[in-house]
Amino acid sequence: MLLITGCTTYQPYRYSFSLIDPNVKDLTYDDGDVFFQFMPAAEHIWVSVYNMSEDSIYFIRNEAEYIDSNGESHNILFGWNFASAMKDFVRNRLSSSEIKIDPKSASEGNIWINIWPGPGGDIGEGWVTVKDSEIEYLDHGMLPEYAHQGNGTELKDTTFSIILPIEFSGYMKNYEFTFMITGVEVIDRK
Q1: What is the pLDDT of residues 51-97, one digit of tens each?
Q2: Which of 188, 162, 190 is nearest to 74 (CA)?
Q3: CA torsion sign, 94 to 171 to 175 to 166?
Q4: What pTM, to 2 d.p., does this model score?
Q5: What stretches of the chain show up as alpha helix (H) in DSSP?
Q6: DSSP string, 72-114
């Protein structure tokens, strides 16, 4: 009996999103040069950047930002999972190199909040040798995923933005996308 009552199951939040700037019906946008597709979640935003032009373009990760619902700016990591994106960032001397996207091709992955130097300060020398599971434990979601991380229901009708700098031949364009949290559902796992 103690085991059953002693264990706590955290109820997760499920969020619904809309892209309000630019205002589109789905979570895609294109301007004739670049096509973007988004799938936001509590932990990260999956994004696909498709180069529609005839020349290579570059996604400048070091200048990309996530602006939370409080208006605070955060640097981002980009990759399929948080641990490999963070290790890549540390191996590259706390820098994220640009991503070349060839004509008529795409780059896709997850946008994560870059928490370096981590909770409580610098993780220290040899940090890249820790297990991926230990790094994943340090991941700070963009939004509360569970009730113990914050009140996700208070975020309904708030906005957040991402800024994705794309370099074309000879010029740079900052693509800014503002999302609204249109719904928050508490998932009952009973």
Answers
A1: 999 999 999 998 999 999 999 998 888 988 877 888 788 777 777 88
A2: 162
A3: negative
A4: 0.83
A5: 2-6, 82-91, 132-138
A6: -EEEEEEESSHHHHHHHHHHTTS----EEE-TT-EEEEEEEE-
